[in-house]
Amino acid sequence: MKAIGIILAGGNNRMMRELSNKRAIAAMPIAGSYRAIDFALSNMTNSRIQKVAVITQYNARSLNEHLSSSKWWDFGRKQGGLFVFTPTITAESSNWYRGTADSLYQNMQFLKQSHEPYVVIASGDGIYKLDYNKVLEEHISNGADITVVCKDMAPGEDDINRFGVINMNEDGRIIDFEEKPLVAGTNTVSIGVYVIRRRQLIELLETCANEGRNDFVRDILVRYKGVKRIYGYKMDLSLIHISEPTRLDVIS
Question: Are 103 and 111 in contact (CB under 8 A)?
Fold first, then answer.
């Protein structure tokens, strides 16, 4: 696949309370045998993405140990590799990641040294099964600047306001994007998966950094929704769809 993958696994979810006191959400055990991040990794390798970066920060020890011991993910060094990035003190920066956009910016060398034209960005705690190739194909077909994978929630669900809420026109272009609104205008939510051209991402991240902006959703998706061609890709599967994460899966 002509894309690199980035998994954002550095955040914390206060709704998990004691469960996340000593481990990152992405390292949370699922169904007894897996960690939450295994599903994003499975989606990456099943989509033939050979070069993947995982960005960690909060309570990262357990997650880093899991990633270093996961030999069965097919990210061979000859094809690409699995890279784990944590905040690093350098001559230019002594900051922890101040937001999702800043975490990407602080690892800009990974983006600049890659050659693939596209980037698939995914959250490290999403439990779903998705072929990113299909998202990329629609992204290219639409001539999109950014594609946001989204899901229609059941009407009346109480937790819609916990997500980024999307409003699209008939062509699938996003005309409004509200992050965790008090009142949701639609039942379509972002699942935290994005496709974007690599050079475009570099440009947007550098603009954010120069302006002191740090959040990918608020400072890129929301800010540029009326400027950039941002489209939604609706996922047919359930947002919470547990399927055994293995690189041998046939993605539906």
Answer: no
